[in-house]
Amino acid sequence: MRNRPGYFASQLKKALKGIGTDEDELNRVVISRCEVDMIQIKEEYETIMKRTLEKHVE
């Protein structure tokens, strides 16, 4: 996997897509990644979604 942050950002996008949230997937990604990874994942998510992960989760 060449772009790990991109992969996990995509997984978060899928977990948050549509009505309802796939909380199991959301928790799996957030809990399984270290703090440094999450910084990169959040940056990649913002690039993909054009909004912050924090705003999407609110």
From TrEMBL:
Pfam families: Annexin
Domain of life: Eukaryota
Family of this protein: Belongs to the annexin family.
Lineage: Eukaryota, Metazoa, Spiralia, Gnathifera, Rotifera
UniProt entry tagged with the keyword Repeat: yes
Name of the protein: Annexin
InterPro entries: Annexin_repeat (IPR018502), Annexin_sf (IPR037104)
Originating organism: Rotaria magnacalcarata
GO annotations of cellular component type: cytoplasm; nucleus; plasma membrane; vesicle membrane
Signal peptide bounds: none
One GO MF term attached to the UniProt entry: phosphatidylserine binding
Coiled-coil region(s): none
Keywords: Annexin, Repeat
SUPFAM superfamilies noted in UniProt: Annexin (SSF47874)
